[in-house]
User: What shape does this take?
Amino acid sequence: MAESVAHVARRINEIVEEGKDSLDLSNCKLISFPDGVFKVLRSVCENIRVITLADNEIKALSGNFFSIFTELRELDLRGNKLTKLPDAVAEMEHLICIDVANNNFTVFPNKLTDIATLERINLEGNNITEIPVEKLSEMPALKWLNLKANPLDSSSQLALQSPHNFDVLLTTDS
Assistant: This one.
């Protein structure tokens, strides 16, 4: 555990000292986003464009996370234990890409459809059965949606087969 804490501290210090625009806390055995990180990064939050929290054990993110990192362009949350995203995710005015593959979502995170800048959504390897295809079709920037390895119901599968302004990746049954 002490090794993980030291690892997180080193990565955070790099951002503050070197003015980096990305924060990589992947594989740090995190169960949540540490509150102390908000305090340390307060002066540089607006410079952070990319956050990677992949392959941890995060079960939830607070709405505070999204209200502090307002300039995020990319957010990588794959390989955690998330079941939902807070409503505050909809306030991410600059987010282009979100990766929540291999989590525990059973319901599509509908607030993602409120992000006008979002181009790429990766939901591969969750347990989502229904997709709000109509709302996704109304997203102005969406280019790519990965829904592989989700047990989509037949109506969602059928709706996703018709032409859209974005590419859809699905698991095909052979």
